[in-house]
Amino acid sequence: MSKPDKIFTFFYSKLLSEKIREKSEVVIISIAVITFILHLVMVTLVDFNIVQINDYSGIYRNPIAAIYTPFSFILIYEVYLLVYYLPKSTTIYIGKQYEIITLIVIRGIFKDLASLEFTANWFSDPNDIKFTYDLVATVVLFFLILVFNRLNARKEDAHQKDSLFSKKLVKFIRLKNILAMCLIPVFLVLAIHGFSRWVHGSFFSITEMVGSIKDVNAIFFNEFFTVLILTDVLLLLISFLVTDKFNTVIRNSGFILSTILIKLSFGITGILSTILIVVAVLFGVLILFIHNQYEKITLPEN
After folding, report:
1. Do 16 and 83 meet the contact criterion of CB atoms below 8 Å apart?
2. Domain spans of the chain, in order of start
């Protein structure tokens, strides 16, 4: 085995192997349980005025909001799974993006539950309206992800019939593995930066910076989807090593547009943000559906 192959094998075993994935799952679940309990303790301390904090995000006002914390760590694990599946399947990788944004919406619902006001004029309160739209959006997103996975399953079954791997395909998969291994430290740095920024704004800062991080959903994930857009563009470019088929190029380009729409949703507030997320996932589903139909067509060769 050559030295580059040894280096590749070493980092792959430490970052993307099945054993590491299983260990990561156990660690993340353990952390989620511990932080959930700690969050409940913090809510109690704040409620009895034992601890004074700048709770701009409102996640320490109600025990229900404590669900927000373990969901955050579940999202971290989903981010790792996204990177883990990147070398294995582009469509599974995109599907993980959709699962992540859906979990972000659900996490926001848990946070908003703590500040809901149940009144006769439900639709007169902007917060209650947003909560309603988020509930509907969650169901729609869940259904769209189901359709996306079914479309992807059919495509994967068709590809399994051809067991021959070309040298170009092997090289393409290797490049995706290298890209995935590079993404892990990048996302780790972004996570640490986002967490430290949130801690500083919540517990120490009294400046205008606090106002910029009131939307806790945007912490880390705004930058995260920016990196995903760049990653998708790289995937599109290196995919030409394997194929230049029109439908595959359009599919990968469509996935980039879908990711950009998700990214744009973090810069918009209110109902429009939720609508943009649904439109992004719906666009991805339609792109995959049309791509699969295109695969069934046998075009005449010139």
Report:
1. yes
2. 3-295
CB 228 within 8 A of CB 187: no
Do 266 and 221 form a contact (C-beta atoms < 8 A)? yes
Cβ atoms within 10 Å, residue 76: 20
Of 187, 217, 232, residue with least CA distance to 86:
232
Q: Fill in the amino acid letter for 145.
A: I
pLDDT tens sequence across 219-267: 678 888 889 899 989 888 888 877 778 888 899 999 999 999 998 888 7
164: three-class secondary structure by DSSP:
coil
Tokens 């509930």 found at: 135
Candidates 41, 65, 104; CA nearest to 265 is 104
C-alpha to C-alpha distance for 183 and 65, rounded to whole angstroms:
31
Confidence (pTM): 0.83
Mean pLDDT for the stretch of residues 163-183: 79
Distances (CA, A) of 62 to 36, 71, 72, 181: 13, 16, 17, 39
CB atoms within 10 A of CB 263: 21
Task: Measure the CA angle with vertex 240, ends 237 and 246; round to 5°.
Answer: 105
The type of residue at 26 is: V
**Residue 284: Cβ within 10 Å count:** 26
- Which DSSP letter does residue 6 get? H
C-alpha to C-alpha distance for 235 and 249, rounded to whole angstroms: 10
pLDDT tens across 63-101, in order? 777 787 888 888 889 999 999 998 888 899 999 999 999
Helices of type H across the chain: 3-15, 18-47, 68-85, 90-113, 126-160, 167-199, 221-238, 246-265, 271-295
Please state, in angstroms and rounded to a whole number, the distance separating the CA atoms of residues 8 and 31.
30
Candidates 143, 151, 146; CA nearest to 89 is 151
Q: What is the CA radius of gyration of the chain?
A: 22
